[in-house]
Amino acid sequence: MRRIEVSCITKTDNDNPHERISHVGGKLKDTYWKVPISEAIHNIEMGFFNYYVSKNCTEVDLVISSHNGSKYLKTTNDSTETNNLLELEQCSIKHK
């Protein structure tokens, strides 16, 4: 399974923390990428990719969780109290 770093997100206007992120993205070599959360979840479930964020020089994996029957992504527990995924910067127009 290939490990892919997520370095940006696209947020929605939804106040529900489980539905606040619509896309995750990053840069792989010289290519910017962005996928909908549903595609990232599918990629994890199928074993195609293992996504992670880098926090304080530590890799923190993204995992699938569920709330009221809806799947979403979150980071595994680490030493910080903050939400590592929601704290990422917004994806730019380079991320397609």
If you had to describe this structure to a student in words, what would you say it looks like?
The chain has one helix at residues 37-45, and strands at residues 2-5, 8-11, 21-28, 31-36, 49-55, 58-67, 70-75, 89-90. The chain has 96 residues and is mainly beta. A hairpin with a 2-residue loop joins strand 3 (21-28) and strand 4 (31-36). The two termini are 23 Å apart. 22% of the residues are buried.
Q: Helices, strands, pairings?
A:
Layout: E1 2-5, E2 8-11, E3 21-28, E4 31-36, H1 37-45, E5 49-55, E6 58-67, E7 70-75, E8 89-90
Parallel strand pairs: 1-5, 2-8
Antiparallel strand pairs: 2-3, 3-4, 5-6, 6-7
Going across the major beta sheet, what is the strand order?
1-5-6-7
Biggest β-sheet strands, sense, barrel: 4 strands, mixed
The count of β-strands is: 8
Shape: globular
Task: Give the fraction of residues assigned to helices.
Answer: under 10%
Bin the strand percentage: over 45%
Keywords:
96 residues; mainly beta; 4-stranded mixed sheet; 1 helix; 9% helix; globular
Quick overview:
The protein has one helix and eight strands; from the N terminus they run ββββαββββ. With 96 residues, it is mainly beta. The model has no long low-confidence stretch (mean pLDDT 87).
